Amino acid sequence: MSVAIEVVEDPARACAAMLVSAAVGGGEIVLAGGSTPKAAYVEFVHAVETVGMDLSRTRFWVGDERCVDPTDDRSNFKMMKESLLDPLAHITQPAVRRMKGELGPEQGANEYERELRQAGPPEFDLVLLGIGPDGHTASLFPGQPTLQERRRLAVGVPQAGLEPFVPRISLTLPALTASQRIIVLAAGESKADAVAEAFGGGAEPDPLVPASLLARSAKLITVLVDPAAASGLDSGGAS
Fold it and tell me: For residue range 75-128, what is the model confidence (pLDDT) as tens digits?
């Protein structure tokens, strides 16, 4: 396992370049919700359009979803559809496997588990994740039982640890770390403490900082942060 911290002025643009690399020739890519991933998707679409990439062999998965209708403004998939999938539809047609949050946390998680198992389950080429100010990643929140799950690939999260306070569906730690590369994307000073606690020098796996648990079994983690989000890190980061 290795953790590489990259401090860049525009994490979204740097992330988009990594998405392109994973998508070239087909790839299994896990998408994340959030404003910085949204900006990365816009940059990615622009890159695909510029070079005319064929994504017909690329497959997108979803790391977590809120249990709302896919047309609800709180839906991660709605954001992904508007910023990534709809614009791509005019250029190329990747496969998409969305979480059906409208089914509720347990039924939705069970259905996504079946989809993942039927697919192999896939070893993802790239998993894109955010990190919350509380250290959560995907919808794996501090101190919750979902952090102990080792057999399932997707779980229901009945109670969110952060707004919006609606039930969720999330990939588990074993599913997220069954990947060639994880990108953790963070921007802004509000993420600085969480980034330092999860990935800074001397960081240890801690269930109160869920993102820190990724390092136990991930092959490669790239932490893409802007200077504000990196302000709590010591020089050199973690490795």
Answer: 999 999 999 999 999 999 999 999 999 999 999 999 999 999 999 877 899 999
Angle CA 89–64–201, to nearest 5: 115
Q: DSSP secondary structure string, 137-204? A: BTTB-TT-GGGG--S-SEEEESS-SSSS-S-EEEE-HHHHHSBS-EEEEE-SGGGHHHHHHHHSTT--
- Cα separation, 179 vs 176, in Å, equals 7
Q: Which helix (H) or strand (E) holds 87?
A: helix 86-89
Spatial distance between the Cα atoms of 16 and 18, rounded to a whole number of angstroms = 5
Please choose, from the candidates 36, 38, 166, 147, the residue with its C-alpha nearest in 3D space to the C-alpha of residue 108: 166
pLDDT at 239 over 50: no
The amino acid at 222: T
Q: Decide if 170 contacts 129 (C-beta within 8 A).
A: no
Q: Measured between alpha carbons, how far is 106 from 104 in angstroms, rounded to an integer?
A: 6
The pTM of this model reads 0.94
